[in-house]
Specification:
Order of helices and strands: HEEEHEEEHEE
Number of strands: 8
Radius of gyration: 28 Å
Low-confidence stretches: none
Largest sheet: 5 strands, mixed
Distance between the termini: 85 Å
Helix content: 25-40%
Oligomer: single chain
């Protein structure tokens, strides 16, 4: 009988050791690095409509009817009075949302509106300066070029910045003062 307990003792001891090592490994290695799910609501890039009827639009053109807009949020308004039936923007309005969505956070408070003009997508700053994007391709690079031009101390006033070639932005005019630094 003692011989049978001895033969069961070794495998039982091995199982206990493996269980203890596994529990320690979980506590020390896995538990602290386990992903914790959290909901990150999308950022609104613009609105459709006005006032209490305004509806948020994401930078990808998705209409975010469920997203509550903060009263303090001063987002540019897109030129549509009602959301599209399928909940996604298309065409030039979609490109405007993409351009507005690519705007760097420090410049967002200075954006008044956007529209589709002769040169393509234009963004008008609150100071009246027009940023001419052409289309939504390379929107991030075009915003970076705009930031460089707007931060240039040698430029004190201008009317527009043509960003269609982001490596070589063109500027002209002297009618509008640059926006104050935040």
């Amino acid at each position: 009988m003692a011989r049978r307990l001895g033969s069961l003792g070794r495998p039982l001891l091995a199982v206990v050791v493996v269980a203890v090592v596994g529990a320690l490994a979980f506590q020390l290695l896995v538990r602290e690095s386990t992903a914790v799910p959290r909901l990150v609501p999308p950022r609104a890039a613009a609105t459709l409509g006005e006032g209490d009827d305004a509806i948020a639009v994401g930078p990808n053109g998705a209409v975010l009817e469920w997203l509550a807009l903060e009263e303090a949020a001063e987002l540019p308004r897109l030129p549509l009075d009602a959301p599209p039936p399928n909940g996604r923007l298309q065409g030039t309005v979609l490109e405007q949302a993409q351009v507005l969505g690519a705007a760097p956070a420090p410049l967002r408070p200075y954006i008044e509106r956007s529209y589709y003009g002769e040169s393509g997508i234009d963004v008008v700053l609150r100071s009246g300066i027009e940023l001419r994007f052409g289309d939504a391709t390379q929107a991030t690079r075009k915003w970076q070029a705009a930031a460089v031009v707007l931060a240039d101390p040698s430029i004190s006033a201008l009317d527009y910045v043509d960003l269609r070639a982001p490596r070589r932005p063109a500027v002209d005019g002297s009618g509008h003062a640059l926006p104050p630094l935040p």
